[in-house]
From TrEMBL:
Residues 77-96 are annotated as: Disordered. The lineage of its organism: Eukaryota, Metazoa, Chordata, Craniata, Vertebrata. It comes from the Eukaryota. This is Phospholipid phosphatase 4 isoform X5. It comes from Equus przewalskii.
Length: 96
């Protein structure tokens, strides 16, 4: 019961902070003359990002995992299948 009261109190406090900050005046950033050069990047005509190259490592890992699981199910078991047979140690299906 005490934990529930603490949880409700923390949530009410966070909600109060949110409401307080929501109605404050917006922050106006003043850019100093020394840092104007940071915002003067040249405009690029083509902003094409090659996403195919971005996801190649994930795809390679997924293919490696699926072949690993397939080798586990197709691996020969000594002692007759899943019922009490031994499983190769490299198989992810092994239970210690």
């Amino acid at each position: 019961m005490r934990e529930l009261a603490i949880e409700i109190g923390v949530r009410a406090l966070l909600f109060g902070v949110f409401v307080f900050t929501e109605f404050l005046d917006p922050f106006q950033r003043v850019i100093q003359p020394e840092e104007i050069w940071l915002y003067k990047n040249p405009l690029v005509q083509s902003d094409n990002i090659p996403t195919r190259l971005m996801f190649l490592p994930f795809r390679a890992l997924a293919l490696r995992r699926s072949t690993w699981l397939a080798s586990c199910t197709a691996s020969p078991r000594v002692g007759g299948g899943r019922a009490g047979g031994s499983v190769p140690p490299s198989c992810p299906c092994t239970v210690p």
